[in-house]
Amino acid sequence: MPIAQFDGALAVVTGAGSGFGRATTLALAERGATVVAADIDLESAERTVVLAKALGASGAAYQVDVADAGAMESFAAQVRSVHRVPDIVVNNAGIAVAGPFLDTGLQDWERIVGVNLWGVIHGSRLFGRQMVERVGSLPTKPDRPNKGGHIVNIASAAGFTPSRELPAYCTTKAAVVMLSECLRAELAASRIGVTAVCPGFASTNIARNATYVGVSEREQARLRERGQRALQLRRYPPEKVAERIVEAIVKNKPLVPVNFESHLLHAISRVSPASLRLLARIPAPLR
Ligand SMILES: NC(=O)c1ccc[n+]([C@@H]2O[C@H](COP(=O)([O-])OP(=O)(O)OC[C@H]3O[C@@H](n4cnc5c(N)ncnc54)[C@H](O)[C@@H]3O)[C@@H](O)[C@H]2O)c1
């Protein structure tokens, strides 16, 4: 199966009903993949599959909460029995919690760690195991280094950029970066590639659904609206992120900063972490 072309490949994408998830599902569908679009919001995933079918691809939509271990087990088993072992898994579903650490309650932490970190752990563990088992039965072809499959974990520039405004979000994304590096090392022998994708700001719905801690409901609604407007003004469409994800799979890249600010922050995090520590102290202008 030529994974570089995605022809005949099976791709699973979580959070496929919106933003990067939808754009990535469609980018893979356009290149010949059969797509499994999973989202906690079934209708939005179904809409993505309709769009994929309009591109000539096959696909199916599933409702799954990536934070729910049992639901993810059933989902992975269902994908294997209804379709087969996937060739590409994009652990993309994610949410944002913004506001100071001391205002971030236990439930806020449980929610964001559940979706952003446990969601990636479940997806990587369950589908990674399936891929490894399948590799055992495949003939070796050294010219196809990631023939065993590819796992893409959507982290963020927040994964290497500390911020007093986004402690919970940054923490989960840093964990996703490290998880991806460790997993990449482990799965290399099975010819399974792992990539952490780290976008900067992009124009999706993430701010609209964000939780702002330590403020009233009214203020939260205002901050969501402002955040949403700011992301739209950034004018970085999810389709561009999807193109970088596709490229990362084809080239089997380990870590992929996406867009200008992410590249810049990544470079600063390596050459001058002290500068990022200073930046981290600045309160967000959107507050
Ligand atoms: N938009 C940005 O600026 C930006 C930047 C860096 C990283 N990211 C990351 O990109 C990923 C995608 O976010 P987006 O910006 O496309 O946001 P989005 O809100 O447009 O899309 C997220 C999708 O995930 C789904 N989802 C949420 N919780 C879920 C759960 N528990 N189980 C299954 N599906 C769930 C939502 O229903 C939605 O369809 C996230 O991991 C996010 O942290 C976004």
Brief account:
With 287 residues, the chain is α/β, with parallel strands linked by helices.
Describe what this molecule looks like in 3D:
- The protein has 287 residues and is an alpha/beta fold.
- It has one domain (10-280): Rossmann fold, CATH 3.40.50.720.
- Helix content is 50%, strand content 15%.
- It contains nine helices and nine strands.
- Helix 5 links the parallel strand 6 (149-154) and strand 7 (192-199).
- Helix 1 (19-30) runs parallel beside helix 2 and helix 4 packs parallel to helix 5.
- It is globular, with a radius of gyration of 18 Å.
- The model has no long low-confidence stretch (mean pLDDT 94).
- Bound molecules: nicotinamide-adenine-dinucleotide.
- Residues 14-15, 17-21, 39-41, 44, 64-67, 92-95, 115, 154, 156, 199, 201-202, 204-206, 209, 231, 238 line the site of nicotinamide-adenine-dinucleotide (NAD).
